[in-house]
Amino acid sequence: MPLPLHQAQTVITGAHDRAAQLGVTVTVAVVDEGGHLQALGRMDGAAPLSAQIAEAKAASVALFRREGSALRQMQEASPAFFAQLERAVRVPILVGAGAALILRGDTVVGALAVSGGMMPGEDDQCAEAGLTVLSSS
Fold first, then answer.
1. Total domain count, the chain
2. Out of 21, 27, 100, 129, which could bridge 42 as a Cys pair, Cβ 3.0 to 4.6 Å?
């Protein structure tokens, strides 16, 4: 069962709150376990392209069932395989910071990704904040 919409929106709010603390404007995408967009929140002033980037990063994490850093290692180890995936998937596979699985126990119920941070680690911090708010609700 995917994450309910109100919880997806809670994730987005938590990530946006952290982004505001950092002084950056980001977009947060939440996808279901199959990589389909469930909710998207683009802060005022966030780059328009950040919406597509966030969705692609979130879908990639969900479909591979791996956190963003583990997915990056896979891509570096098998670049030819990842290049071929472009022809096989609906959303481009995009590996990047700020992408994480949303779990219920050991079950993947979705994923989120953040795009728009200006400094290294900002997307990751925002994604972590979204997950933290979800786990405390």
1. 1
2. 27
